[in-house]
């Protein structure tokens, strides 16, 4: 048996906290890539502004912008939207896209309340050619925040995992084990599990099967199933037997019910199409902030069902809908565009890392 590496985050007492644990800030990147929302880009900065307005009421919002010009434009929009500027910070770091969940740092914390960064390789979901700017972000933020970082050497996106902060992690075989859009060719299931344990503290990996229709990431779990507390998972279900999501979501639900967790179901909206393309619309792509849960909505009768279900699961938080019909044309919504930074003080860089 291979001996554990004494210098990994887990060996040094770090773990990835659950999303509902206290945040210092939420990281986002200001939208700029018009190719992600062809024909609809004009609406997107205003959607972002509403998200920032809500988040800035409960925690700091740290925004990546390409340059000074982009920052000025963002400030104008945020001012009109009523964002709380005393809680908003800008960082001039260029990005390829805005999906900070996937390319941003995954923060870890130890029992002393020290925060550090795990830096995973990002390659645009093994699908698109423009990813190099995004891949630089975790290292750049480690330097700016004067925070220790570990480079895992493995490709991983934040949207492909979800944790309960107590050692359990959700993911899918379609994303991490498939030969299609293969992130880590040659890595076995056991090797992937070892990396997730060493760098995030995942003692137990729960493997679901496949993702939803329209998801260009090829199986991200944050459209399927999410932890809402240490012992409860919310799982998306499709009631329409003729829908492409019916059987995959049913299979994932069966797998979850074999685990030692309470499972609560969340409906899917009716299929969302634009320009003849099915989009990955899912209420499971909600984001948990301090005292707030933001939920994507789709002008659908199930909007209120999903909001009510999540309100019952988060009785101590405001649960608010964010209109996401335009946003999802970029093939992601609220969880995809956010990355939480846990509350705590920086664990300083170590020259040996």
What's the short version?
This protein is an alpha/beta fold. 24% of the residues lie in helices and 26% in strands.
Quickly list its features.
19 strands, alpha/beta, four-stranded mixed beta sheet, L-arginine/glycine Amidinotransferase, Chain A, single chain, 353 residues
Molecular structure report:
It is a single chain. With 353 residues, this protein is an alpha/beta fold. The chain has a single domain (23-346), classed as L-arginine/glycine Amidinotransferase, Chain A (5-stranded Propeller), CATH 3.75.10.10. Helix content is 24%, strand content 26%. It has nine helices and 19 strands. Strands 3-2-1-18 form a four-stranded mixed sheet. Strands 4, 5, 6 and 19 form a four-stranded mixed sheet that branches. Helix 1 packs across helix 2. The protein is globular. The two termini are 24 Å apart.
Largest sheet: 4 strands, mixed
- Total discrete domains: 1
- In helices, the fraction of residues equals 10-25%
List low-pLDDT spans: none
| CATH level-four homologous superfamily name | L-arginine/glycine Amidinotransferase, Chain A
Order of helices and strands: EHEHEHEEHHEEEHHEEEHEEEEEHEEE
- Average the pLDDT over all residues and give the rounded result: 96
Query: Strand share of the residues?
Result: 25-35%
Helix-strand makeup class: alpha/beta
Shape designation: globular
Total DSSP helices: 9
Strands ordered across the widest β-sheet: 3-2-1-18
- Based on the coordinates given, report the CATH architecture: 5-stranded Propeller
CATH fold topology: L-arginine/glycine Amidinotransferase, Chain A
The gyration radius over C-alpha positions equals 19 Å
Our measurement of the CA-to-CA distance between the termini, rounded to an integer number of angstroms, reads 24 Å
What's the level 1 CATH class? Answer: Alpha Beta
Number of strand elements: 19
